[in-house]
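Researcher: Quick sanity check before group meeting.
Model: Go ahead. Protein one:
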Amino acid sequence: MKPLSMWEYSALLEEAQQKIVKKYLKKIYQIDKKLFRFDFGEFSLIVQLGQYFYLTKNPPSAPQNPSNFIMLLRKYINSKKLEKFYQFDFDRYYILEFSNKNKLIIEQFAKGNMILLDENDKILSSFYPTQVEKKSQYLYPQAKEFDLAVFIGKKYNLEDKDKPKHYCIYNNEPFLVCPNINTINTEQIRTFGSFSEAIEFAAELENKKIKNPQEDKENKELLKLYKRLEEQQKILLATKQQINDYQKIIQYIENNSSKIEQLILKAIAEGKKTIKLKIED
């Protein structure tokens, strides 16, 4: 799935603010190399660094053993109330601010990163190494001049920007569209109640490797069994062919016993030890 646009991130952020702000962070997991899960009671925030985040009530299963980075996050922000979840300067920096004043910065550009700050915005740890050392001040990017109306105009007609939004999947990619813009073939659209649901659906289509470990084990065993059955089938086919060949030889000998006897006598007279028979179908 391609990385989301800032407008799409804004829609997801708005949904998340309504569902998890003022909720307590129950648990943190690292599902895959760049995939994280933050449980806030009823909802879980799923973050794929550099690509997307979304809310779900059915999060992917988590591994048993947490990484060192996850253990550190749990130490500082586990069981803390999420006071704010906001975006820095309409850029791809998303900030979770907790009741103990710690902040978790989610950088959603390039390969992405996750950075934990203390109450003074000094770096405690990061998923990927940063250009500044630990305990150094985290430097937010320089503010940019940005014309929001122009940006909205690129995504929608300006007169439609305040109308209800429609969430959908088109060709396995999530889209956020206004209902009166008919630029997408409706036969290929699958609709959803929220943009988070659309992102979750698209992520599951792409990331098939996030599975239940027991299911993976069962699938591997089934694959081994299938390969063994294929090998046995090949052996059976070869054996069947041999049986057919032997039956042809026996049938030929029975039908041509006199001829074969004469050939044997001739070979003995000539001092030959073998004779050649041409068996035709």
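Researcher: Fine. The other one?
Model: Protein two, sequence then structure:
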Amino acid sequence: MSSYFHQQSAPWFRIGRLEVTTTIAVVLLGAVGMLAWVFAPSAQQWLVYSPQQILSGEVWRLFTWPLADGISLWGLINLALIWLFGRDLEAQIGRAKMIYLFVGIWFALTLMTSLVGLLVSGAAIAGLQMVEFCLLLLWIAEWPTRRFFFNIPAWVFGLVILALQVLPLLAYRAWGNLLGLFLALALVAINARRLGLLSQYAWIPGAPSARTPRRQAAAPKQRKHAERKATDSERIDQLLDKINASGIHSLTKSERAELEKLRQRRR
């Protein structure tokens, strides 16, 4: 599987030898959240998003829940997987669109938690685990035939991890959570399609509209400019030939003005 993880987009900036792309920036923010847990463990409870707490005026939780993650083996693995899968997706669509992809994932997961909170009590979300889950599914959908561990096709691995999310919800009859999960995945897929991913799935709405390239639109104007430039060159050559043959005084006043105008236009 490692042979596929080699693409990387242009960085926004560098910290020493570290090239900070959009994906790396998200990983660094996740690491900051973990370090905050080390120095202030109680701070995590102020970052978790729960719809009930929003009703109490704690609106900041809408934006801080991805940072609410403590240091653990799975937390570090999640950061590594975000980097591995995210950098391939970012290389595909570019660093700017990758920001919109992450924002879309955040919006979809926040909306999912909010809707589930209307149906059941205790709904909450924290950390980057679900963000990594969405990125992984997008990566698999983009390259379904790539090989994972033990030479397993990516699409098979995707079905397995999706089943591991869905089956427990079915077993506990958690219909609200199940509906929220599929809604979030649908929104993530539509946003990804809009940004240029998942182009092989025509049934997913949100495909970017075809635009006429600027170069093609400007072609007639450029052609007209080139034709005028060629005509100007021919006229200049005619006037210069007359000067070479009979001297500068052979030009009339209007011809001298015309020659100067043509020279100015060629600059």
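Researcher: One line on it for the slide.
Model: The chain has two domains: 2-194, 214-266.
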